[in-house]
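Field log, afternoon session.

UNIT: design team B
ACTIVITY: writing a sequence onto a fixed backbone
BACKBONE:
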């Protein structure tokens, strides 16, 4: 049910923008670590969107509720990798996934920000929503405790392959955390579809950024 009242939060300005000619390097601080993210203007997936900031902040502040230490975490649509890096700092075994054209920048950001840390080494993998899931991530081998997704729904997303991907990875016991900026009717339509399939709760809202953070678990029947 969506009736529980979500907490209202503000995305904290905990980064210092630096500008360079080709790439923007954004400097963030989460869980006591400075994280430097290289963005690319060529791809949607290579910019830090507000949902990523919201989820990173929430994971940092709610470590008792969502303890990622030694948990298996999959991020779908990882983009620049900020959320995966934060999950890695929090002690998770992270698999960060996105489209092939985004992987180079994603791998660069993740390796640069985690290489000197005493954390589980994160993995970066290609994942096209709804395609080759059984071949690339066979159920017998892959079981994730958490699925993380931020700003994966926008006005030109194909919602059905995304939903199919979420459903594929969400086994009994898996928690899906999805943060998204809600702008278009398509965003709300996707939310409605999600609620029809999963047990869904709004954990937090960030009204200034129009971001909602939701928790979803698979219905066991």
């Amino acid at each position: 049910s969506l009736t529980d009242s979500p907490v209202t939060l503000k995305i904290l300005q905990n980064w210092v923008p630096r500008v360079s000619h080709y790439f923007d390097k954004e400097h963030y601080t989460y869980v006591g670590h400075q994280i430097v993210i290289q963005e690319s203007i060529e791809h949607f997936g290579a910019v830090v969107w507000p949902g990523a900031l919201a989820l990173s902040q929430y994971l940092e502040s709610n470590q008792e509720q969502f303890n990622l230490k030694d948990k298996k975490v999959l991020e779908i649509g990882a983009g620049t990798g900020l959320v995966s890096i934060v999950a890695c700092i929090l002690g998770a075994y992270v698999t960060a996934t996105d489209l092939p054209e985004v992987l180079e920048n994603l791998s660069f950001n993740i390796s640069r920000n985690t290489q000197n840390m005493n954390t589980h080494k994160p993995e970066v993998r290609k994942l096209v929503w709804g395609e080759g899931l059984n071949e690339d991530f066979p159920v017998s081998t892959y079981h994730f405790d958490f699925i993380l997704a931020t700003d994966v729904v926008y006005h030109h997303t194909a919602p059905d392959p995304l939903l199919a991907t979420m459903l594929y990875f969400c086994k009994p016991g898996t928690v899906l955390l999805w943060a998204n900026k809600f702008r278009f009717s398509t965003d709300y339509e996707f939310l409605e579809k999600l609620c029809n399939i999963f047990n869904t709760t709004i954990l937090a809202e960030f009204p200034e950024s129009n971001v909602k953070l939701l928790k979803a678990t698979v219905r066991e029947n």
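LOG NOTE: The chain has six helices and eleven strands.
NEXT ACTIVITY: expression trials, pending approval
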